[in-house]
Amino acid sequence: MWTSRVRTALVGATAAAVMVGGGALLVSPAIASSVTNWGKAWKKEIKPRADKRYVTKDDARDRFAAKSSLGHYYTKAQADSTFATAGDLQTLLSDYATLDDLQGLASESDLDDFYTKSESDSRYPAKSDLDGYYTKSESDSRYPAKSDLDGYYTKSQSDARYAPAQSVQKGTFYVVGQNFTENTFALFSGDVSFGTTLSAAPTVHVIAAGETAPAACGGASASATNPNALAGQLCVFLRPTQNVNPGSGFQIVDPTTTADPGASTFGFGIRVEGNGTLGHVAAYGSWAVGQ
Questions:
Q1: Whole-prediction pTM value?
Q2: Distance between CA atoms of 206 and 252, rounded to whole angstroms?
Q3: Are strands 16-20 and 279-290 parallel, antiparallel or unpaired?
Q4: From its phi and psi, is residue 161 left (phi > 0), alpha (psi between -120 and 50) or beta?
Q5: Distances (CA, A) of 125 to 108, 119, 122, 129, 131
Q6: Pick from 210, 213, 242: which is nearest to 228 by CA?
Q7: For the segment 95-122, what is each residue's pLDDT rounded down to a tens digit?
Q8: Domain ranges of the chain
Q9: How do residues 176-214 score in pLDDT, each as one tens digit?
Q10: Fewer CB within 10 Å, N- or C-terminus of the chain?
Q11: Residue of 232, 210, 260 lying closest to 163 (CA atoms)
């Protein structure tokens, strides 16, 4: 548009002035005399002096967005009220880890071989639940290793090879009385409790002073001062008696049945008969019962 108008204005004139950007551009007659030079004049003289503040409509469409297309954008004021500034971010992000901080941490896939807290809580006892247990080091210091027991029998092996150890109850007795009438056979009695109940009534053995005890009562190693008895046996060891009728003058009886000789599962009775001599009648000693 500018080129055609300028050319028209300058035809037939020896000198003319062209208004460009609020100022006048003088074109010499030498330039006006040649129509073919107006293209150069436009490019070299007029166009460079045009006001750069304006663009064509097409240029504007290419360079700028339509106002209606800004609906998806924040204005500067909206952005300032919605988002933190760079300075604010430093404060806001101070409690968060950076990418560099996370480089040394495990990824989610790295945790596939680990239990979560809830899974661990459901599978394992809490530390406080183990207060009644020994630690490994405590157990190692208190108990032998399984390999250390190779030279020992198990309970079942021992039970199959050996008889169980027997328990022997022991005690003493003392029966004494006074015969006031000569040639009479005074009777005196006493009783003994085992302090436990046997599984069955024992077999009774009476060993007089100086006699060797039978095997059921410990044999020669047993005596009134060292009474003994095997399981199921009652062994009564007499000390020297005083004025006791020989033979039947000392008897062990079952207090529950009066069997003579005999004993019950929880004790026995003693019956002593004098020999008719005036004075004391006495019998004492010890006993042992095996179970």
A1: 0.46
A2: 8
A3: unpaired
A4: alpha
A5: 26, 12, 8, 6, 11
A6: 213
A7: 787 777 777 777 777 788 888 889 888 8
A8: 2-49, 168-290
A9: 999 999 998 899 999 999 999 999 999 999 999 999 999
A10: N
A11: 232
